[in-house]
Amino acid sequence: MGRKWNNIKEKKAQKDKNTSRIYAKFGKEIYVAAKSGEPDPESNQALKLVLERAKTYSVPNHIIDRAIDKAKGGGDENFDSLRYEGFGPSGSMVIVDALTNNVNRTASDVRAAFGKNGGNMGVSGSVAYMFDPTATFAFEGSDADSILEGLMEADIDVRDVIEDGGLTIVYAEPDQFATVQQALKGLGISTFEVAEFEMLPQTEVQLSPDDQETFEKLIDVLEDLEDVQHVFHNVEL
Fold first, then answer.
1. Which of 74, 174, 180, 187 has the highest CB neighbour count under 10 A?
2. What is the pTM of this model?
């Protein structure tokens, strides 16, 4: 569970930063979801899921409203959802998900980030097969056994429920995100430290101190790119 717990710590750290960069990424994702269907979360499941995730990062209402209003107004920006796969130092693995209105710019930026920070781009499928798409929830105030029992009584299947770092963590199939979250709310969970779609590595690696420093810089550069929404990896930080 080491890498999975590291992943939760990374998400909590991002949440605690509450940076404008995170808000901007959610603003883009909310706009895309709202534009893909009705700009109403009650009739647009994709939008509802994004808004639920945005709540865990305390995204301000004015950013949410602005993105939805832009979609309502027929905003003419169109974004492509792209996934890049690559390798960091010592064969470490990285997945980069992006939303972009300029595919050439994004590809160039991601390639440069890898090339200048000890890594290289891979072909599609070269890395993703070593990761499992996962719906991940983390929260305080409940023990794993009672949560698992409550989910089973509600006939909800999950992959695992564990306790680590003072949190209860639930791992589920990604297509069960909304179902599991609703069930957890029914069990009295009102606040989530993490509620995200993840790509969790099947195995994790440890790097030498020098490679670790290079790798962390690579991740920082990738996450700071305007078009990048998520970065996943298999390195224990």
1. 180
2. 0.90
